[in-house]
Amino acid sequence: MSQTDLAQVILGSCTCRELQSERAVAHGEATQEGATDPTPTSDRRTLDVTQLTPPLPMIRILEALRDLGPEQTLVVRHNRRPTHLYPKLDALGCHYQTVEDSPGNVEVWITARTAKAS
């Protein structure tokens, strides 16, 4: 993949919308074991990038976010915290939470858009 292709993936491929009410908690990172997500299993997609070398994890994650529907959550399994991904998620308005059960076992829960309160 060329640098131009990578830039297109990073800069314009996600349809995540800006979160207004939850922007303050978008940077929250859970480190406790057993953290749960209220997203029903049917609205959850899983992506395992543990065996990929950089920059492939970020590329795969951003590609998966492009196809993420409203109120769906992408659960990314990674072997470390994807610190370079967090600013991209902020720019895209995605809500995310990182759960690190043990060293080398990291999950990042990314939601494109939360349900609106009625």
DSSP strand content: 15-25%
Look at the structure and give the mean pLDDT.
Answer: 73
Taken in chain order, the helices and strands follow as HEHEHEE
The number of distinct β-strands equals 4
* Span of the ends, CA to CA: 44 Å
Structural class: alpha+beta
The largest sheet is: 4 strands, mixed
Question: What is the share of helical residues?
Answer: 10-25%
- Label the overall shape: globular
Radius of gyration, in angstroms, nearest whole number: 14 Å
Counted by DSSP, the helix tally is 3
Strand order of the largest sheet: 1-2-4-3
Key traits:
118 residues; alpha+beta; 4-stranded mixed sheet; globular
Secondary structure layout:
Blueprint: H1 3-12, E1 44-48, H2 56-66, E2 73-78, H3 86-92, E3 95-102, E4 105-111
Parallel strand pairs: 1-2
Antiparallel strand pairs: 2-4, 3-4
Account of the protein in words:
This protein is an alpha+beta fold. The chain is built from 3 helices and 4 strands, in the order αβαβαββ. The protein has helices spanning 3-12, 56-66, 86-92; strands at residues 44-48, 73-78, 95-102, 105-111. It has a 4-stranded mixed sheet with strand order 1-2-4-3, with helices on one face. A hairpin with a 2-residue loop joins strand 3 and strand 4 (105-111). The longest helix has 11 residues, at 56-66. The protein starts with a helix and ends in a 7-residue tail after the last strand. Mean pLDDT is 73; it is low at 3-35.
Summarize the structure.
This protein has 118 residues and is of the alpha+beta class.
